[in-house]
Amino acid sequence: MDRTIIYPITTRQDGLRVEQFLRRMGYSAQNLASIKRMPESILVNGVPCYMKHPLAAGDQLQVHISEQKCSEKIPPVYAPLSIVYEDEDLIVVNKPAGMPIHPSLNHYTGSLANALTWYYQEQGKPFIFRCCNRLDRDTSGLTVVAKHLVSGSILSAMTKKKEVRREYLAIVRGKISPESGTICAPLGRKEGSIIERFVDLEKGEPAITHYRLLDEKNGHSLVSVRLETGRTHQIRIHMKYLGYPLIGDYLYNPDMEWITRQALHSYRLSFSHPITGQWMEFTAPLPEDMQKVLEG
Predict the structure, then answer these.
(1) From the centroid of its chain, how far is CA 99?
(2) CA separation for the pair 265, 142 (Å, rounded)
């Protein structure tokens, strides 16, 4: 994937070396080491320069990112994609339930990574898969994938610093009470299982979930859930801990009367663009299977 980023240098940045400026823009040390090895990757006013080159107000710094390799062990396989947004730095996809994010032993060709690799191969573009907010296979909704090493590194750092806001919609049976609140319960891995997690008050990692009731229809509650941390299965376990497990959750609440997958949808995703800094916000409507539960 090729990407050229242009930075106009202002008086506030006068005297900074190229490397210093890029670190302030969010480039990691690993990013800079990789970019150094790319041909004519750093230009100032159209002239190739080293990372130690001093910048002056009025300069135009050009960074050319060139990644020619593709992700190993991710074969390109066609699958329809619901693309919500795309630019030179990232792509936001509304993932359907039943599609895993990464290939695995049992899903080697049916993942989002396979579909995106095919999508870019058709355009003649090499692609390394960098997903920044992973969803469980049966959780539907919005996920953001970086298109090059710099946007990937910055989005990953933003996620760790809780600067990527995520709102989910979940359905539970009955009316949830209290109607809003915060669940603070540490999570750990269940002994003897590589998949299951549980509330581990002694050794678990901190996990915080905010929720509020949005609607009650047909004997079910539609709940908005906002993550402050992003532990594995956090929403599924926290809602069960509250006493209102998600319907259709084969692992934690196999209540399959109304839906055959956990009734969880990544509804809203918002963050500052990793390159431009512009505030981005995306939503994806409730999928049909969850809508049917509410309609009866």
Answers:
(1) 15
(2) 8
Q: Is the pLDDT of residue 296 over 80?
A: no
Let me know: does 167 contact 268? Beta carbons within 8 Å.
yes
Distance CA 225, CA 165 (A): 11
Q: DSSP E strands: which ranges in the chain?
A: 2-8, 42-44, 47-48, 60-66, 83-86, 90-95, 130-131, 140-146, 165-173, 180-184, 187-189, 197-199, 208-217, 220-227, 264-272, 279-283
**Which is nearest to 176 in space by CA: 226, 210, 222, 207?**
222
DSSP category for residue 246: B
Q: Is 198 helix (H, G, I), strand (E, B) or coil?
A: strand
How far apart (Å, rounded) are the C-alpha atoms in residues 130 and 252?
29
Q: Is 136 a catalytic residue?
A: yes
* pLDDT single digits (tens) 262-284: 999 999 999 999 999 999 999 99
- pTM of the complete model: 0.94
The backbone torsions φ and ψ at residue 120, rounded to the nearest 5 degrees and listed phi first, read -80, -30
Joined tokens for residue 217: 């229809």
As a whole number, the mean pLDDT across the chain is 95
Catalytic member of 59, 136, 138, 249: 136
| CA–CA dist 296, 291 (Å, integer) | 9
Q: Is the peptide bond before 287 cis (omega within 30 degrees of 0)?
A: no
pLDDT tens-digit profile of 72-126? 889 999 999 999 999 999 999 999 999 999 998 777 899 999 999 999 999 999 9
Alpha-helix residue ranges (DSSP H) falling in 62-138: 112-121
Res 15: pLDDT: 96
C-alpha pair distances (Å), 203 with each of 137, 167, 188? 27, 27, 7
Secondary structure in 3-state letters for 15-76: CCEHHHHHHHCCCCHHHHHHHHCCCCCEEECCEECCCCCECCCCCEEEEEEECCCCCCCCCC
**The pLDDT of residue 276:** 96
